[in-house]
Amino acid sequence: MKKIDHLDLSGNSLRTFLVVLEEQSVSRAAERLGVSQSAVSHTIDKLRLALEDPLFVRSGRNITATKRAISLYEPVRDILDELKGLTRQRPFDPLKRSMELTVSASDFTRDLIFPTLITAFRQAGIDIVIHFTPTTGFPSPEQLRRGLCHLLVTPFPPDGPDIYQKRLFDDEMACFYDPSQREQPRSNIDYQTADYVEVDFKDIAVVLKHLPGKEHLKHRVTVPSFSDTATYLKNTDMLTVQLSLMKHVYFQNFSSAPLPCKTEPLTMYMVWHKREHTDPAHQWFREQIESRITAITQESLSH
Hints:
303 residues, alpha/beta, Arc Repressor Mutant, subunit A, D-Maltodextrin-Binding Protein, domain 2, 3 domains, 22% strand
């Protein structure tokens, strides 16, 4: 069969190659790309001819990338980034262009920032699709490099020469409780003898570790997400220690109290890859997030 000319290579074929390399599976790559497995296989066969390498070989029921394929990952990624950059000088009008992107965030930052934004987008007639994926602990820069998400919202921004970050807000810890069931905790003894609802984030020890006598605190309920804490706190005399801005999303009907000791503020960041750094649509989206945070913090200061 005649070798394919390098000029016949397309951005779509290179993107298919990257996704197969990342997924190490034709079927998973096809699902991610939204095409058939035969279409993916056909594209890879054409690339094998053009690049004169098998690229992927069978290993049992799976496939394994060749050394040549692995070495092409960064160059191909750079080519695709440059191709995308050719369109970035166009003015972005959210009323004339559609957007689809993926945001990785905890349920707290997701629920704090985006419901109001999405309502505003819909009311303005902006065509935008947002996919949310959960993030806990310390996210990896590979999420951004591989395009698994376009934006991270996290207190632990990953590092890398191709990774950008910007501070969104700082927040203090506060204690929340149901005022119909108990009085405000005021002393160390009040805190040490209380029962707690706690979020079970093993990688993030930023909450109860600051309280005096933390080794004796009673965690009566541990839940997998921030949004669950209010459900189990309601109609009980238990406490939960969370970021104060949660009063805007989960604890509107609860009271709060300062902790009996000073704690370090927690900084939240939004993080993105260099390929989205100068993209007008992504710049616009990040600006909307910043505007929303500004409105929230101003509202907090006014109360």
